[in-house]
Amino acid sequence: MNKAEHSAVSRFQEPLVLIAYTLRWVALATVSGAAAGAGIVLFLKFLSWGIELAHGFSLWWVALPVTGLVSSLLIKHVSPEAYGHGTEAVIRAVNEGEGRIPFLAAPIKAITTVLCISFGASAGKEGPSAQIGAVIASDIGGVLRVSASDRRTLAMSGLAAGFAVVTGAPVAGVLFALEALRMGQPDYSALMPAMVSTLSSVTVARWMGYSHPLHASFALPAADGSLFFKLGLLALFFGMVAWLYIEAEHVAAHSFHRIHNLPVRTFVGGIVLVLLALVFSREYMGLGVEIYEGALMGEPVHGAAFLLKILFVAVTLGSGFSGGAMTPVFVIGAAAGSAVGKYFMLEPAFVAALGIVGVLAGAANTPLAAVALGVESFGAGFGLYAIIVAGIAYVVSGHRSINETQLLGAPKASWFVVDPCETCEDGRGAHLNGTAPVNSYLLNVPRRGIH
C-alpha cells in the first residue's frame, strides 16, 4: 500500500477509530470464540467416550498399530493439514501463511486423535483442541471475508481458546497464543481479540458442562534464602528436562522419517509402543492424566516416570501418531517434580506443580503463560515461585522448541547474537529446526569475550 492510499487520522479522531476497531473485534471474537469453544468441548467429550469405549480392550496390542495406520491414511489422503501436534499446525498457519486452515482439518484431527489416544498412543489433547479451535475461528473469518491479517488473528484466538478450555486457565491461554508464535517476541497485536475469544470460549465450555482446571494439594513453603536457592536448582533441572523432551522427540522424528511412507511409519511406531508397554508398563500410554493428577495430590510417582513418558511420547509423535505435545508437558513436569521433591525437603506435590510450570516454559518457550497457569491453577501465592522457575527454565532449555515452526524472535541471553536469516524471505527471524538444534548461522557468540 502506498502513501496515497492511507488516510490521515488526527489525534482527536484516533480514539473514535480505536473504539470502532474494539467494537468490531468484540463482536467477531465473541462469535468465533463461542463457536470454537463448542467445537472443542464436543471433541473433548468425543475423546472421553473413545477412551472409555477402548478401556479394557484385550487386543490393544493389535489395535494400537492398526489405528495408527488408519489415522495416517486418513491424514495423508483426506487432510494433510491435520498432521502434527495440533499447536504446531496453527503456528505454521499463522507464521507461514494467512491463518488459513481448511475446515476438513478439524473433524479429521478429532477422529484421528480419538482413534490414536483411545488405544494407547502417548499424546495430548491441548494441541488438537487448539487446532480445532483455530480452524473454526479462522473459517468463520473466511466466511465473513476478513483480511489475511484478521484471519491470522482469529487463528491465534482459536489457539488461545483451545489451551484455555482444556486447562481451565483463560489468562494462560491468551498468553500462550501470544508467546507461542515467536520465541522471545510476543505478538501483542492480538491481545484484545484473544482475550475476548478466550472468555467467550471458556464461558460456552462451562455452559456445556466442561471445566477441568488443574488441582493440587500442598502448603506453600516459607520464602527465604534457602528456598530460593532450591528453586534455582529445580529450575535448572526442569529446563534440562524440557531440553531432553524436545531433543528426544526430534531424534525420534528423524529416525522414523527414514521410513518415507507415513502410514507404514506410524504402523511401525505402534509396534514399538506395544513393545515398550510390554517391557515397562501401560501406565505411560494414552493421555497420562492420572500421573500428573496423582503427583499434584501428593501421591508417590515412580522416579523414572518422567523419563519413560518422554520415551513413549517421543515414539508416538515422532512416528506420526495424531495427538498433542502439551498434555505430555504436564505429565513429564509433574512426574519430574514429584521424583526430586523429597531430595529438596519440599512437598512432592508443590514441586510437581513447579515442574509443570518449568517444563512448559522451557519446552514451548512460553514463560508468561506458564506463570499464569501456575497462578490460575494453584493460587496467587504460588506466583512468586512460578516466576523464578519459569524464567530460569525458559533460558536453560535453549534455543529450541517442541513446535518446529516457532520463529526465533530474540535470543534468550545477551551473550548470543542473531544473524540475518538466510532462509526467511522477510528477515524477521529464523525458523527453529524441527529435527536438530539451531544451526550455527542463526546464533553466534561474539569472538571478543562475553559481556
Written account of the structure:
It is a single chain. Helices cover 62% and strands 2% of the residues. Helix 13 crosses helix 14. With 451 residues, the chain is mainly α. The strands form two sheets. A three-stranded mixed beta sheet has the order 1-2-4, with no helix packed on it. The protein has a two-stranded antiparallel ribbon with strand order 3-5. It has two domains: 14-207, Clc chloride channel, CATH 1.10.3080; 225-396, Clc chloride channel. It has helices spanning 14-54, 60-77, 87-96, 105-118, 126-143, 148-167, 170-179, 191-207, 225-256, 262-279, 289-296, 305-318, 326-341, 348-364, 367-378, 383-396, and strands at 182-183, 407-408, 417-418, 430-431, 443-444.
In short:
The chain is an all-alpha fold and 451 residues long.
Keyword list:
451 residues, mainly alpha, Clc chloride channel, 2 domains, 3-stranded mixed sheet, two-stranded antiparallel sheet, 16 helices, globular, disordered C terminus
Sheet-strand content, in percent, reads under 5%
CATH domain class name of the largest domain: Mainly Alpha
Mean pLDDT: 87
Indicate the CATH topology of the largest domain: Clc chloride channel
Strand order of the largest sheet: 1-2-4
User: Low-confidence stretches at least 5 residues in length (pLDDT < 50)?
Assistant: 420-451
User: Total strand count, please?
Assistant: 5
Shape: globular
Helicity level, as a percent range? Answer: 55-70%
Main beta sheet = 3 strands, mixed
The CATH homologous superfamily of the largest domain is named: Clc chloride channel
Give me the Rg, rounded: 21 Å
From the coordinates shown, what is the CATH architecture of the largest domain? Orthogonal Bundle
H/E element order: HHHHHHHEHHHHHHHHHEEEE
Total separate domains: 2
Distance between the termini: 42 Å
Number of helices: 16
The secondary structure category is mainly alpha
